[in-house]
Amino acid sequence: MTTEHWLGFVTGILFGFFLQKGRVLRFDKQIGAMLFKDMTILKFMLSAILVGSVGITLLAQQGIITPNHKSMNLGAVLLGGALFGTGWGIMGFCPGTSVGAVGEGRWHAIFAILGMMAGAALYAELYPFFKTTVLAWKDLGKIGLPQLIGVSPWIVVGLLWIVSLGLFAWFEKKGI
Q1: Residue 80 within a domain
Q2: pTM, entire model
Q3: How far apart are CA 141 and CA 118, in angstroms?
Q4: Does some domain include residue 145?
């Protein structure tokens, strides 16, 4: 295994550890998030996004990394978001939390993983159809939000931090 593989493995283990310690693998937290009664998962993920946004922007600015965006395809985003939300709503798990739940010994989460694998296989089989329909709707190219709206990445990062900290304060005030 290469250094990149080991770093990915260690990062994945740490992320799983923090998912478990943050209690975001719990079914009640998943349902609470979907009902907007418990924002633990949103706070956890926003925290990771905030730290990552600063780190990635700094690394890119220093030339250490070169962001390689996937193509911003409107049809794929809409279809993928709908499928993700439906699967999360039905099973109460997203991909990361389903694997983490199995790691905690909650074997019923295997059905979520099997559903995701079946969905991926079905998508692969239907890809020629999707390529000429949903994936042909609107392709904005390989861009990120800063390029889409024509501003510095630091403006997007700053706005993300301001909005997120405001949300955190509001969630605390509401006790969610």
Answers
A1: yes
A2: 0.77
A3: 29
A4: no
